[in-house]
Task: inverse folding
C-alpha cells in the first residue's frame, strides 16, 4: 500500500490527519498516521488492526493504538532503529519478504521518520 497525504479533521483521533501510511503485514494492518494539533504541531498515531471473528460469527476489527508526541520522535526512532539493527544482525531472514526485498531497503528508519 502506498502512503497518502490527507487533510481532514479526525474527530476520533484528536487531530487533523495530514499523512497516513497503511502497512499490510499478514493478518494485521498497521497504520502510521501523522496528525496536526491546532498549533500545527505534529504527533504520530500507530494503530495495529486485526480482523477477528466474534462468538456470534460476525467479524470485527480489534485495534490497538499508541500516540507518539514530537518531543519523543528522536528517542523513539533511535530505540526502534537499535532494535531493528539487533534483529537484522541475528535474524536477517526476518527482513526478507516473499518478493525477496527488504522492507527497510528504502533507507534507515531515521530517514523515514525525518520525512514525517
Result:
Amino acid at each position: 500500500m502506498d502512503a497518502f497525504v490527507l487533510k481532514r479533521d479526525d474527530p476520533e483521533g484528536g487531530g487533523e490527519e495530514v499523512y497516513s501510511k497503511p502497512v499490510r503485514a499478514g493478518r494485521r494492518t498497521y497504520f502510521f498516521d501523522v496528525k496536526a494539533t491546532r498549533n500545527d504541531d505534529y504527533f504520530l498515531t500507530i494503530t495495529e488492526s486485526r480482523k477477528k471473528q466474534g462468538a456470534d460469527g460476525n467479524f470485527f476489527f480489534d485495534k490497538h493504538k499508541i500516540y507518539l508526541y514530537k518531543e519523543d520522535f528522536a528517542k523513539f526512532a533511535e530505540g526502534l532503529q537499535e532494535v531493528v539493527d539487533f534483529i537484522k544482525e541475528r535474524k536477517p531472514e526476518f527482513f526478507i519478504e516473499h518478493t525477496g526485498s527488504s522492507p527497510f531497503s528504502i533507507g534507515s528508519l531515521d530517514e523515514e521518520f525525518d520525512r514525517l
